[in-house]
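[job 0412] stage=complex_fold ligand=iron/sulfur cluster status=START
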Amino acid sequence: MADVKQVTLTIEGRPVVVPEGTSILEAAKTAGILIPHYCYHPGLPVAGVCRMCLVEVEKFPKLAPACATAVGEGQVVHVHSPKALEARKGVLEFLLINHPLDCPICDQAGECELQDYTFQEGRADSRYLEPKRFNPVEDFGGDVLYVTNRCILCTRCVRFMDKVAQEPVLNVSERGDRATIGIHPEADLGGHAWSGNVIDLCPVGALVSKDFLNKARAWELDRTASVCPNCTQGCNSILETRDDTVVRMRPRANEAVNQYFLCDQGRLDYRWLERRDRAELPYVRAQTARGGTELAATDWDVALREAAALLNGRRARVLASPMLSNEALGLLARVVARTGGTGVFTVRTGDEAPLVGVPDLALRADRAANVIGAELLGFERREIGAVLDGLGADDVLVVADEELAGLAPTLPAGVRVLVVGTTVPTWAAGADVVLPITNMAEEEGTFTNLRGRVQRFLQAKAAHGLARPSWYVLGDLLAAMGDGEGYFTAADAFAALAAAQPSFAGLSYDALGLRGLPVADAERFAAEPALAGAA
Amino acid sequence: MGYPHPSHPRETPVLSKHFGEPEARTLKGWRDRGGYVALEKALKMDPAEIQTIVKDSGLRGRGGAGFPTGVKWSFMKPDGKQHYLCCNADESEPGTFKDREIMRWTPHALVEGVALGAYAIYASVAYIYIRGEFTEPLEQVRAAVKEAYAAGVIGENALGTGKTVHVHVHQGAGAYICGEETALMNSLEGRRGNPRIKPPFPAVAGLFGQPTTINNVETLAATPHILNNGAEWYKQFGRPDNPKSVGTKLFSVCGNVARPGNYEVPLGFNFGEFLWDLCGGAGEGREIKAVIPGGSSVPFLTAEECRTAVMDYEGFVAAGSMLGSGGVIVFDDRQDMVRQIARLCRFYAHESCAQCSQCREGTAWTTKILERIAAGDGVAQDFDTLLSIADNMTGKTICVLSDSCATPVVSGLKKFRHEFEAKLKASPNVVSFAGTATAAAAPRAAGPTV
Amino acid sequence: MTYGPSTPKPSPDALASHGAHHDDHGPYAPVFAAGTAPRAELDELLTRYPNKMAGLLPALWIVQRERGWVSDEAMAEVADALDLTAAYVKGVVTFYTMYHQHPVGKYFIQVCTTTPCHVCGAEGVVDAFLQHTGCGELGVTSADGRYTVIEVECLGACGFATPVMINEQFLESVTPQRVPEILAALP
Ligand SMILES: Cc1cc2nc3c(=O)[nH]c(=O)nc-3n(C[C@H](O)[C@H](O)[C@H](O)COP(=O)(O)O)c2cc1C
Ligand code: SF4
Ligand code: SF4
Ligand code: SF4
Ligand code: FES
Ligand code: FES
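[job 0412] stage=complex_fold status=DONE, emitting C-alpha cells
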C-alpha cells in the first residue's frame, strides 16, 4: 500500500497526515480528536444519517459530516467552532425531545453515547413542550430486546444485519418521526449466530441484552482484556466482572481476528467460569479409619510431592483439555516427555457459523480455544471415546482439566490418576492426587487460534479456594520431579515455552501485546483463499 | 394552453399547445402534430452534438433546482459503461401539477424527450418514475410507451436508426421524497426512498451504481422542441437582460385564485400581470394576501412583492423567494397563515424519510408547536424556539426536505408575525398540551430538564 | 374544442381493484404461483431491470391488485420470489403510503388535504365523506365494509382542488356538495 497518496490537513490546529480517502472523522482520531458521532462505526458501511459528526471545513459552504467527507489536501477543519458546536447541540436536542430520559433504569447508562455527548456539548435544558412519542418494548429474538423509545435510528443495527451478517432481518419501518426499527414475524434475530453484536453496536440503550438485563450498572464493572475460549477462532474479548463475578463478555476490537464482533455462542457462554463445584484444595488419597481410602485435603507441598512421586517411574497418559493455555500445555508436554508417556486431547464440536461479511471469521466447529496449541505442543487429537485407548495398567492418567462431558469411562483397574484441574470429574473420583488450578478468567495465559495466532488473556478475577494458576502448579510439579525451579509469572512460563518450542520461538508477552502474533510456522494454518476472500 | 381554462393570449404554448386534445395522445395524433421528428433527427446525430445544442439553448432543469440541462448531460461520456436516464415524474411538491398535464395529454411528448435524452447521454435504458397516485398519467404514458415500442419508435432499432433506446415506466407508491433524485434511484432499485449521501454523484454512480442522469418531465419534454427549432429559437424566450433564464415554463397555479390551472409563459414574465391578469387574482371579492411562487418549499411573497417580481430563476430570488418547481400557491385574505403553515409543516413531517435526526424530529416538532399555536395554546418563547429549530434544520441534512420545512416557518414568522402573535395565550406561562388541555392542566414555566 | 375539469365516469375496472379478497382467513394462497398470470407478469417485469430487487415495488403492486392489501405472508412470498428477506420487504412496504398493511374497505377513498387544497376547503370534503360513508373516523372501515376514508398529502392536482382518489379512480374538483352523488354512483 506504499503507493497510496498521503494527504496533509489541519484539524483543530493540529497537522494530520493520512492516506487519501480517509474520512475526516478517522483522520481526527489519529490526532487524538474525537468527533462526536452516532451512525458511524468503523465496522459498518458509512450511512451519514445521524448528522452528529458535523464539522466546519474552511471554504465549504455547509457544515460537513466528518464520517462521510474524505480528507482533502490543505483542508482546515474546525471541530469545536461555534457553528459546529451549535449544529451538534441541535442534533442532540432533536434526539432527546422524544427520548424517555430513563437513564436510571437503562442498562446503557454509564456507557451511553447519548449521555456522553449531551454532557459534553448538549443543552442543559429542554425546550420541548409537547407530549412525547411512546412505543412499547419489543422482543427481537435471540438475546435482544428493543426499547423503541430510546432508539435514535442510527441504523447501525440494520446495517450490521444487512451488510455484515448479510441476513437482513432488521429494517427501518415507517418514516418521519413514526419510524422505528422493525422485524418481520417470520424471522427474528434468534435465527442468526452473530446477532448479539447489535447490542454492542447500539450507541444507546435501545438494544439491550436479555442476559445482562438489570444485572449491573456499567460503572460497577471491572473490565479485563481476554480471549473468548469457546472456539478456535479466538475472538478478542473483554471479560466484565462485578464483585469478582463474570457478568458479561463483550468483543474487543482486533482487525486481524474478529474486527468488532463476538458470536452469541461465545458471548453468552461464560457462566461455567463461575462454577461452584470446583476443586478448591489440594488432595491426596489417604487411609480412612475404617480401612478404606479417601481424598483428604492437604497443603500444596504435600500434594506436589505426592504427585511427583506418583509420576516417578511411570508413564504419564496426559488427557489435556484444549481449553488450557499454551503455557499449561507446554508444561504438560514436558511431563509427557520426562515420563516417556503420551498426550491426547479431544474436542467438542458443533456447526460452523460464519459471519459472512468479515473475511475468515466464524464460530468454528472446534469449540475450544487452544486446539492448535495442543497440536503444536505434540498432543494427539482423538475421538472422545478413544482417549483412554492404549492406557496401560501401570500408567498414570493425568486428567488435565478434561471432564469428558457426556462420557463416564471406567478406568482400567490399577491405573493411578492425577487430576490437575478446576474440577474433579466423577469418573476420576478415585484419583490419587488432586492439584486444583484456576480457570481462564482467574489466570493469565495465551491461546493459539486456528490461524496460528498466539493471543494473551489477562486475569479478570481472584482464584477460587486454594487453586493456583495452571502454569504455576505445573511448573512446581515439574520442579518436584526435578525439572527446573517453577515459574513466578506467566510471562516466565511463556518465555520457557518460546525457548523450547520452535513454533513459539521469538515470541514473548511483551511482543504479543494485547493483539497477538502468529507462531513461527503460521503459514501452515492459513485460510484457504476462498475463505479469506469470502467478504 | 392554460389548461383547464382556455389559453390566454399572453401565454406562449409550446409544451402545453396540445393539452386538452385527446387525439394528441395517440402515436398517430402525435406524429400529425410534428412528433418524433426531433427524435429521428437526434438518433442520427452524435450524442455529444445534442449535448452541445441543449447546452447552448440555456435550458435549465424544471424539477426545482434549475441546473443547466446541457451541462448535466455533458457529464456523461462514452465510457463504455451502462448508463441510465431517469425521468423524474414523481411530481409531489404541493402546488405543482404541470408534469401531470404533460403526461396525461401529451404522453408521447414525454416518451420522445426521454428517448432523446437517453440517447444523448449514451444510455440504452431509461426509466420514467411516475408517482403511484397518478393513475391517469400512468395509463397514458404506459399506453404511449407500448405504442412506441410496437411502431419501432423505441426499442432495439429505434426509428430504424440501429440505435437502442429502451423506455420503461416505473410506478411509485406514495412518497414525496422519491422526487429527490437519489431517493428516486433507491426507490427504483426496490429500496426505501432514502436520499443518498453525495458524493458519489449520480453521473458517477447513480441508478444500479451506474452513471445516471435524472431529469424532470418538463425538462425532457422541452428538448425535442429545442432539437427541432434550434438553440437560438429557445433562447428568444426570456428577458433580454437575463440570458441565464430562458425558454418557456409551465406554472401551476392553485389555491385561492380565480382561474387555477397551468400557464405557459416565457421566463422573465411579470408576476403581477401573471397573477392578476392571466389567473384573475384571488376569487370574487377577495384580495391576495400571500403567494408561494415555486412549490411549497420556497419562501412566501406578499401581494406587494408579487406585483413587481419577475418570473425567472434570478427574478424570484431578487424578490426574496425562488422559482422552484413553478407551483404558484395563492392565499387570500381569509386564510389563517398560522394554520396554513402548520399544515405545510405537517406535510413535511409526514414525508420525511427519517434518516437525518434534524429532519425526522424537527419536522414533527415544528408541526406540533405550530398546531399548538394555531389552537391558541402558544407561548411567546415558541417563536424563538421555532426559529432556532428552523436554523438547526437548515443546511445540515442529506437532502433539502428539512430546509424546505423550515422555509415557510422562517418566512411566515417574518412576514406574518402579527398573525402568530394574535394567537398567543393570554397567560404566557401556562402551556397545556394538545389532547390533555383541560382546566386542570398544570402550569409550567419551562420544559422538562434534559 | 371544449373540455372541462376531467372527471371521467368511474370505470368499473378502476374500481374493481380493491377489496375483493378481504376476508381470507384460510391458509395463505400464493399470488405468484408457477403458471399463473401474476407470475408471468412479474417475470416479464423483471426483464426490465438488471436485478431482481428492482422488481420489488412492481411486485407489491401486483400483490395489492390481487389481494387488496399486502399482508405479512404476502411480504414473505414476495421476498422469496425476489431473493430478499421478509423483514427487508416489510421495511420497504412501510415506507410507502400506498401499500395497505391492513385490509381496507371495498372503496378506499383518499382526500388530499395539503395546503393548496386545504385553503380551498378540503376539510369540508373529508367531513362529507366521513359522514356520508358512515365511516365517522379517518382510517376506519365502515361497518358494511364498503368504505375507508383517509386524508392524504398532495395528490399533484392542486389546481383541481379538491382531488379525491377512489381506488384507482382520480376525481377532480370535488366539493362537499358532490360527495353524496359520487358515492351513489359507486357500484
Ligand atoms: C425533497 C425533494 C423533492 C423533489 N421532488 C421533485 C419532483 O417531484 N419532481 C422533480 O422533477 N424534481 C424533484 N426534485 C428535484 C430533483 O432532485 C432533481 O433536482 C430534478 O429531478 C432534476 O431534474 P431537472 O434537472 O430536470 O430539474 C425534488 C428535490 C427534493 C430535494
Ligand atoms: S436500535 Fe440502536 S443501533 Fe439500532 S437504530 Fe436504534 S439506536 Fe441505532
Ligand atoms: S467465534 Fe468462537 S471465539 Fe469468537 S466469540 Fe464465537 S465462540 Fe468465541
Ligand atoms: S433531510 Fe429529511 S428527507 Fe432528506 S434525507 Fe434527511 S431525513 Fe430524509
Ligand atoms: S456519524 Fe456522521 S452522520 Fe452519523
Ligand atoms: S395540495 Fe391537494 S393536490 Fe396538491
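The longest helix of chain A spans residues 82-97.
[job 0412] exit 0
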